[in-house]
Design a protein that fits this description.
Layout lengths: L10 E2 L20 E10 L2 E11 L4 E5 L6 H8 L7 E6 L2 E2 L5 H4 L2 E4 L11 H12 L6 H7 L15 H12 L6 E5 L7 H16 L3 E5 L3 H7 L2 E6 L2 E6 L1 H7 L5 E6 L16 E7 L2 E6 L4 H10 L4 E7 L3 H11 L5
Parallel strand pairs: 1-11, 4-9, 4-10, 7-8, 8-9
Antiparallel strand pairs: 2-3, 2-5, 5-6, 10-11, 12-14, 12-15, 13-14
């Protein structure tokens, strides 16, 4: 039976053995980003509530939470775009404040909502931003090619779709080849083709040694890319670990989904008594059994022995979405 967790429990694991090996080697150096006891209040609203998290060098870190959970506020505070009410933030082991401009020169930042001068072309836009950042504008054409905007480099940004503006935002974050990227919803508003471009670029940057933090509502992309995730709800961190470790901690089990002719929403007798079966539910002709992988064959054999006609079956492994829903529901849902 699943153990009930207290409402304020935060699941974290800092053991090196718990880590999924990142493309760039993780080590015991000081975290690239360290947030300790962060509070951010807007009048009586607690946007961030005693948040503590860390991002290790060379990893891809997914920052997740429902709408209004405090993700963007946390990111803006890390970027010194807003003042914390209290708490400490360090980037590259240097305390962050609105005066620590130098450490932010090595961060590729994409805000949640980005806009550019509508009367400039992408080339003019990135050239201007290169000058502001002290980078060589010779990279502009390649940056546009990297995000799939090479063919529209002479068009005015004002004619761009929302997705194209987002891609230009990803391109501007890469100016100066920073070692740390903080990307707030980098895949927001993108179609499947452009999502793939951004996903591949995140992988490539990480393989070249960059540390990457990104928030996203596309949980499947987070699951494909991230070494660890931090999940925030109502301004507080509720979990921080690898996806596999979160699934183990939450005791999420693989599911066997079986379509049976004439089931009519009734769970066959004895299925939930099979060793390794955690739960069995039926809806219409679909039977869903939460069980260990080693018990799947036993379930199918038991169904056939009962004279039931199996039309189809498939296995469903635990996903980040399962862990996300479980954790958020345990901590009181959305604000």
């Amino acid at each position: 039976m699943r153990t009930k967790r207290c409402e304020n429990e935060v699941w974290k694991s800092n053991k090196e053995s718990d880590l999924v090996t990142a493309p760039a080697a993780l080590n015991a150096e000081a975290p690239v980003i360290e947030v300790m006891g962060l509070h951010k209040n807007y009048d009586k609203v607690k946007a961030v509530n005693d948040l503590t998290m860390s991002v290790r060098k060379g990893e891809i870190y997914g920052f997740l939470g429902p709408n209004g959970a405090g993700k963007s506020t946390t990111i803006k505070t890390i970027m010194a775009l807003t003042h914390p009410t209290s708490g400490v933030i360090k980037v590259h082991n240097t305390p962050v404040s609105t005066k620590t401009v130098d450490i932010h020169k090595d961060i590729g930042y994409l805000p949640e909502k980005i806009s550019f001068y509508r009367n400039l072309t992408p080339v003019q836009t990135l050239t201007f931003l290169c000058e502001l950042k002290g980078a060589d504008p010779v990279v502009v054409d390649q940056l546009l090619e990297d995000v799939g905007l090479g063919d529209v480099s002479d068009r005015k940004v004002g004619t761009f779709s929302k997705g194209m503006v987002q891609l230009l935002g990803v391109a501007q974050a890469m100016i100066g080849d920073p070692s740390l990227y903080i990307l707030d919803e980098p895949m927001g508003g993108l179609d499947a083709r452009w999502v793939r471009i951004v996903r591949d670029k995140i992988r490539e940057l990480n393989e070249r040694g960059a540390t990457i933090v990104f928030s996203s509502h596309i949980l499947s992309e987070v699951q494909m890319l991230c070494d660890r995730v931090g999940i925030i709800n109502k301004g507080a961190l509720v979990a921080e670990d690898t996806i596999d470790n979160l699934s183990d901690h939450l005791e999420l089990r693989p599911r066997l989904e079986v379509t049976i002719t004439g089931l009519d929403g009734a769970v066959p007798d004895g299925i939930d008594a099979i060793e390794g079966v955690w739960n069995a539910d039926a809806e219409g002709d679909k039977l869903t059994v939460s069980c260990d992988a080693s018990s799947r064959i036993q379930v199918l054999v038991a169904l056939e022995r009962r004279g039931l006609t199996i039309k189809n079956f498939k296995t469903l492994d635990p996903t980040l979405e399962d862990a996300f829903v479980e954790l958020i529901s345990d901590h009181g849902g959305e604000q």
